[in-house]
Write the structure tokens for this entry.
Amino acid sequence: MSAALALSRRGLRTAVVERGAVGSGASTRNAGFLMRGAAENYEAAIGLYGRELARLVWRWTEENLAGLRAEGIGALPSYRAVPSCLLALEEEELAELTRSQDLMREDGFRVGWMSSGEDAVWRHGRPLGGLVNPDDASINPADLMRLLASNVGPIFEHQEVFAVEPGARAVTLRTAEMSLSAPRVLFCTNAYAPLLFPGMADLVKPRRGQMLAIRAPGLRLDCSYYANHGYEYFRQTSDGSVVVGGCRRAFADVEVGYEDTTTPAVQSALERFARERLGLKAGAYEIVARWSGTMGFSPDGLPLMGPIPDLAGEREGRVWFCGGFTGHGMSMGFRAAHAAVAAMIDGGDNPLPLARAARGPGAVLGAQR
């Protein structure tokens, strides 16, 4: 949706071809965090990517939220202008977050720190401290998708593309019911790219994330929280329920692929985590929903943008990909889509080229999530 907006506002005729219904995948099944940063904390990101790229990514995520606010998300009922807090539950992460705070201030970011609080986390969860992104927000992602889609057209839903055929003058997409031709095509398919382009199997890997929603009388959270280096995350919604996600680290070998389901092991782990960190007692809360979504992980944890490699008959860079958000599409997708459009149409700067991952083993670092 973000890419279509960017294209149409350039005056270009734009169409969206959607395999299912708009937002039927992880675009509406995520936890709704609109937070600054990537999977790792700032100090760790500098170690992985270098300071210049880490600073750029953090700025992008700020610009991502600013762009969505300009689209009007602040008027949506589920929008909450609530800080996010990276919790330190162990001494090692406390030291990393403390150093991250100093580095972020040096690089001009507005950042805060929590040593205590009055909500359920600080009363029951025993955190050692927390780095605060004071200008973050959260939202029901389905509301966000509906807003973006309302400004895009035409959208062809339930049209799974099975063939991409570059020609002399245009690229043709084929579905079971229709064919469309265009001078350029941008695939924003995230985890699902390898199903159409097998050569991308090493570049974007499907990883399942699971969540649940809890309702408990009197439960209060003053921030949206990340814990255990982002492996667990939870926030309060506009109706008072709390969304809890993560707990995939212990089950990483099975939380892969495209199967859209929840599993007893991960769901039980999420409940244990919620009870421990929120002080919930048996019988004092209700699980009101359980769900999953398939994320697209890149080799180094950062988005991928650029011409799709090894597409037969295509040597002119007319077929591009934007994705591989590694669980942070809400924080990066809008801004990355605009950058991909600018690079594809204008030949502008692309700081996160897909080619960096396509160079083969050893070209990038291992994904962190």
Q: What stands out?
A: The longest strand covers residues 286-297.
